[in-house]
Automatic annotation (TrEMBL):
The lineage of its organism: Eukaryota, Viridiplantae, Streptophyta, Embryophyta, Tracheophyta. This is BTB domain-containing protein. Coiled coil: none annotated. CDD domains: BTB_POZ_KCTD-like (cd18316). Residues 6-81 form the BTB domain. Pathway: Protein modification; protein ubiquitination. It comes from Salix udensis. It comes from the Eukaryota. InterPro entries: Beta_prop_At2g24240, BTB/POZ_dom, SKP1/BTB/POZ_sf, T1-type_BTB, WD40/YVTN_repeat-like_dom_sf, WD40_repeat_dom_sf. Pfam families: Beta_prop_At2g24240, BTB_2. GO terms for biological process: protein homooligomerization.
Length: 446
């Protein structure tokens, strides 16, 4: 009986495995197994008269290989108790299968199917200030003057700092580069903004602000990036450098600056959001950073503020509703805002300076606010709207943004920030130095 030409015999660490080239081809051309095959995925056989004697020896862990081979066969990841996950990830990295493992561990992001995966306790004292999800399933946490970086298996990389000045915001440029914005240190030129390597913690370059052809020190605030390799940051200087700076992501050079106009607020912005569809930047300065809220859309092509709203001059009522966070929703031409009661409000982007239409149906809280409440945050992902309040995160769906589910943990206290990316949701707690990781389980086997 002839042995099929598709059959492959592997000796991994002394244990024999038999599989097919079709199965190994599931690893992809850039994997370890891609080197065993020709361009049309025909097996590259050693010079031998008998194919039955052809055996490939791989000096690696056979227990981990068994798990990874089963993953290539079925698409499912089943890790026995005798296989430490750290060892499995190390072996998956060797074979070029980390992406396969990652996609098998959790499914495509769905806020209504999220399950708590783990909680990670940090080492730094005090409270964290911001958390940002990375594109590859990792995250970074701003903690005072230091940013702690975690990869997708939640192993910590070297911490980042910018002259040990207080961090105001942090953003991922890509899976390998992180931007930090920090406070200026008077008289020293420290602080500002820098680009770091996620893996090594190396400062690759610092960004500069030029005003009247002179380099100025500045405090960098809220951050955002665009798909055409631009970096945006709110800026405050000691002269007239109040506004939004723009830098080239590749070179680090400043390419534009939108100066703050009298009676408005840009340099103190709490939040920036780049909108790919309209090629505009949402800039929001919110209470309590300022006594009033200022939300605007900037078009850098014409150096114009194309949409704006403020509660300046609005009458103060007993049930005052201060905007605590905002997010632009391009698909519906709307701006969504949230107040301290987690009421959602909406404004039409096609109407400049219109009023907020509040909707109390979203209210999740019962009773009074906690003694030390965290201000609510908003996020939009995959057509779902997320809002944090105290120790839970609410999920809203549909054209009328109906409340569909709620995420909550009993440990850590109020949620001061959360972020979505890499098919994960990360929630940072204020009362304990801990953050939660939420994932969507893989779809059931049909």
């Amino acid at each position: 009986m002839k042995i099929p030409k598709d059959r492959v015999r592997l000796n991994v660490g002394g244990r024999i495995f038999e599989t097919t080239s079709t199965t190994l081809a599931n690893a992809g051309r850039n994997s370890f197994f891609g080197a065993l095959f020709s361009e049309n995925w025909s097996l590259k056989q050693p010079n031998s008269d008998s194919f039955s004697n052809c055996e490939f020896f791989i000096d690696r862990n056979p227990d981990c290989f068994s798990v990874l081979l089963d993953l290539l066969r079925t698409g499912d990841l089943n890790i026995p108790t005798n296989v430490p996950e750290r060892n499995l990830y190390r072996e998956a990295s060797f074979y070029g299968l980390l992406d396969h493992v990652r996609s098998a561990k959790w499914g495509q992001f769905d806020g209504n199917r999220l399950r708590h995966s783990r909680s990670v306790t940090g080492r730094a004292p005090g409270d964290g200030t911001a958390i940002r999800a990375g594109p590859d399933g990792g995250c970074c946490v701003a903690h005072g003057s230091v940013v702690h970086v975690y990869d997708w298996i939640m192993e910590e990389h070297p911490p980042l700092n910018l002259d040990y000045q207080r961090v105001n915001d942090v953003a991922w440029v890509d899976s390998e580069n992180i931007i930090i914005s920090a406070c200026e240190r008077l008289g020293r030129g420290d602080g500002g903004m820098g680009l770091f390597s996620k893996s090594t913690g190396e400062l690759r370059y610092k960004f500069q602000v030029c005003h009247e052809n002179q380099v100025k020190s500045f405090t960098a605030g809220a951050l955002s990036t665009s798909s055409d390799y631009k970096i945006f940051s709110s800026c405050k200087g000691r002269s007239n450098e109040y506004g939004i700076g723009v830098w080239d992501q590749v070179t680090g050079k400043q390419i534009d600056f939108f100066y703050e106009s009298p009676g408005w607020s840009l340099g103190d912005a709490d939040k920036l959001q780049w909108l790919n569809g309209s090629n505009c930047l949402l800039v929001a300065t919110l209470f309590p950073r300022k006594d009033n809220c200022y939300i605007s859309m900037l078009d850098f092509r014409d150096k114009k503020m194309v949409w704006s709203w403020s509660d300046f001059g609005a009458p103060i009522t007993v049930d005052e509703k201060r905007v605590r966070d905002t997010i632009a929703m391009e698909d519906s031409n709307a701006i969504c805002v949230v107040n301290e009661y987690e009421d959602l409000g909406f404004m039409d982007l096609r109407m400049n300076g219109g009023s907020v239409k509040w909707s109390s149906r979203s209210r999740m809280m019962k009773g009074k606010l906690s003694d030390e409440p965290c201000y609510p945050k908003l996020a939009l992902h995959g057509g779902q709207l997320f809002s944090s309040m105290d120790d839970c995160i609410s999920v809203f769906c549909g054209p009328d943004w109906v409340l569909t589910s709620r995420l909550r943990r009993d440990y850590g206290g109020s949620i001061c920030d959360f972020s979505i990316g890499g098919d994960r949701l990360f929630a940072l707690h204020s009362e304990e130095n801990v953050f939660d990781v939420w994932e969507t389980p893989p779809p059931p086997i049909s």
